[in-house]
Amino acid sequence: MTGSSEDRADALFHALADRTRRDILRRVLAGEHSVTTLAAGYDMSFAAVQKHVAVLERAGLLTKRRHGREQLASGDVEAVRSVASMLDELEAVWRGRIARIDLLLTEET
Amino acid sequence: MTGSSEDRADALFHALADRTRRDILRRVLAGEHSVTTLAAGYDMSFAAVQKHVAVLERAGLLTKRRHGREQLASGDVEAVRSVASMLDELEAVWRGRIARIDLLLTEET
DNA sequence: ACAACATACAACCGTTTAGTTGTATGTTGA
DNA sequence: TCAACATACAACTAAACGGTTGTATGTTGT
User: Fold this and answer.
1) Are B84 and A81 a contacting pair at CB < 8 A?
2) Can you give the pLDDT at residue B2?
3) B29 CA to C2 C1', in Å?
4) Architecture of B3-76 per CATH?
């Protein structure tokens, strides 16, 4: 269905629309961190941070791998790029508008 | 305060995290449209669409100008670019991680 | 001068979100 | 083997969200 690409966009932008999640994403893009290590950096419960990590994971912005009793989270730069390409598409729409205006202005008849 | 840049990011990503708003943004990036014209394109009340336009306006993604009794909305491509640059910053964080890994791998001692 | 139009906003409703605490399930041996 | 640790998830609460209807305020004259 046409919805699933929009579902993905909803999930990605929603995941990015919270400053704690953006901060977590920065940290896991810089390197692997366990959920406990991440949680230590915020003034909220472990469970709250674990839920933020789950939101990022569901959106595909991070992945986890098991290492002993820890889950190491790592940022997925490809997901970040996919968001960037959605914005590129918006900019392309805008360029189309400008091109149409230029066409009118330079029309020869 | 350090918050205001994060406030802006919150508003931008939140505004983009709804498919109706993304669609409205596409339309106003392609050209000016009145709120009524935009509302005609969706299966919801005029008031609902007007609220979506207000969310996009508060985030700085569109501006309005008065033309008689209409308010013509126009997409602001600079705001779209500012979101793209936030994502570029995230990608730069990731590149720093890769650079650090490469440094370890090519270490000479 | 006024009916119709375009917009804005308040009040309300059901759902989702972001946080909390508490509990269950694995895993380790720092 | 078992106490401590790391994680996941359920249940709950307050606030925010996305939608509705109704009303108020400008603006026009296709």
Assistant:
1) no
2) 56
3) 37
4) Orthogonal Bundle (1.10)
Intervals of chain B under pLDDT 50: none
Residue ranges of alpha helices (H) inside chain A are 3-16, 19-30, 35-39, 46-58, 77-105
User: How close is the nearest chain A Cα to the Cα of B68, in Å?
Assistant: 22
Quick one: A102 exposed, middle or buried, by C-beta within 10 A (0-12, 13-18, 19+)? exposed
Which backbone phi and psi does B100 adopt, to 5 degrees?
A: -65, -40
Q: What residues in A contact B30, CB-CB < 8 Å?
A: 93-94, 96-97
Q: Which chain A residue has the Cα nearest residue B93?
A: A30
**What integer pLDDT is reported at residue A66 of this predicted model?**
96
| pLDDT reported for residue A95 | 97
B47 CA from C12 C1′ (Å): 14
User: What sections of B31-76 are H helices per DSSP?
Assistant: 35-39, 46-58
At A47-89, the pLDDT tens digits run 999 999 999 999 999 999 999 999 999 999 999 999 999 999 9
Q: How many residues does chain A have?
A: 109
- What are A32's two structure tokens? 């692997």
Whether A3 shows a pLDDT value over 70: the answer reads no
A50 by Cβ neighbours in 10 Å (0-12 / 13-18 / 19+) ranks as middle
Taking residue B26's Cβ as centre, other Cβ atoms within 10 Å add up to 14
So what's the pLDDT on residue A107? 81
Q: Give this prediction's pTM.
A: 0.94
Q: What is the Cα–Cα distance from B23 to A41, expressed in whole angstroms?
A: 37
